[in-house]
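WARN  no MSA supplied for this record, continuing single-sequence
INFO  ligand: zinc ion
INFO  echoing inputs
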Amino acid sequence: MPRAAVLAPLLAALLAACGSSGAKHSSAAHGGSMVVLPTGPTRPPPPVKPAAPRRAPHRAVHGFHPTSTLITHGPRSGRDVALTFDADMTQAMLAAVRSGRRSIGYDPEIVRELRASHTPATIFMTGLWPTAHPGPARDLANDPLFEIENHTYDHSAFAPPCYGLPTVPSAADKTKEIQSAADVIDGLIGSQPRYFRFPGGCHSASDLNLVASLGEQPVQWDVISGDAYLRDPAAVARQTLAGVRPGSIVVMHLVGAPNAPATAGALRTVLPTLRQRGLKPVKLARLLRG
Ligand SMILES: [Zn+2]
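INFO  complex generated
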């Protein structure tokens, strides 16, 4: 059997791109879409350790106070919106890259569209992504147009069923998924990520507590672009523009074909239309600071 015929269903099963289903991840499913700014209960400052080990138990960015409430959007009162791009990379995808399918997991055309239009964006990156695409990972990390946040180490599911993704078996393994990816991102950008997104959006209440306890804020979305299952750029653009409003967090993907082939094409319509409507794409950190 040709290699492509073997890999296609494998990738389809193991790359369950986030935001694949509007019903599963609607804000209603998570008890409403309340705005939660990172101004939670004040915690005592961590003990000062000049030579603190890299894997400290609590590694929150100084002055950043995550809560265990899932954020799905920012303030509705302004004109800002956040475009977020998930950089998924499963072990199966990485194997495909290593076998010669180097385009798996990254469509550089998306980044070209964002740069050409000077559009800030947030990239939720898996820890394995820089292994597959080391040059682009450094390039994105060095570009102030982008911020890089945490999307687990290998895009495994925190709560089954989750689009066929393998499930992380224990809380200790979940901690490792979060911290390993955070360390990879720290190596790229020089600081710990502040925001975290669950693969497929799949999680339990205890998972929210775990993420917050590790110093990161769980973030979902309120607008599913549909780029993970729509093949037509016009359809992705229509769905995105039908849902977006002030404060929105839009989920898209950086992965390109075969899993999200229409993202770059959709941006050619979405980006100018947002601006025509007076909406301003900003990085997530700015949106949530208000
Ligand atoms: Zn994802």
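The longest strand covers residues 80-87.
INFO  checksum written, moving to next record
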